[in-house]
Amino acid sequence: MGKIFVFVNQKGGVGKTTSAINIGAYMAELGKKVLLVDFDSQGNMSTGVGITKDKPSIYEFMDDDSLAEKAIKHTAVANLDAICADEDLAGAAIEFADADKVPVEKRDFILKETLEPLKSIYDFILIDCPPSLGILTTNGLTAADAVLVPMQCEYFALEGITLLLQTVKRVQSTTNPNLTIGGIFFTMYDSRTRLAQDVVRNVQAYFKNFVFNTIIPRNIRLSEAPSHGQPICLYDPNCVGAKSYKKLAEEVISRG
What we know:
Elements: E1 3-7, H1 16-29, E2 34-38, H2 44-48, H3 58-63, H4 68-71, E3 72-74, E4 80-83, H5 89-96, H6 110-115, E5 124-128, H7 135-143, E6 146-152, H8 155-174, E7 180-187, H9 194-207, H10 220-224, H11 232-235, H12 240-255
Parallel strand pairs: 1-5, 1-6, 2-4, 2-5, 6-7
Antiparallel strand pairs: 3-4
């Protein structure tokens, strides 16, 4: 059975989607069969791997599991598939909260029920959640085996991670008791700043074994790749960002 990882951070701009794309792409290059699930209505993951946002998206797929063959699209990376998201997903949060449409007892399990049959097909399923701790993210956490937390090296990230871990504990005590912390990793690291060094040191001291060894540096090539619809392994495999994400993917696999 495959393992489901969910990428979560309620703060936007921390490299969450970039990390999901590139970790997934390198997992695939390392011989694993991987499915990316875009669960953010902005659809940035879909754009980042060059798939069109044609129907059916994850929104339609959750409503009709017979659409699997049409919803799952191949990417330019061998072994890497993806399910796109579009603006319709924004309405799902409203629908999930409507007890007349979705029974309360099923509200947090819709994505889990959708993805469960796919675990026998893929080695890893990676869910990219929106930058919030709302109902869509709760669905992602309920569906996952483990949560991966990208963390930007700045002061406010330290405050945000506390709130995120409180949400994880709530999910563990209610809808997903088997959910684990897959790990925390640093993104956009600039070794020239003392703040970045202090954040890394403090988080490593507090969270210890939960922190991955690999740190993702600031790298312009990582920022450019999504506009070309390519993971960094295709866009510039020799840049420092690519080498870092390959190492991080190897770490995630070894822990998984």
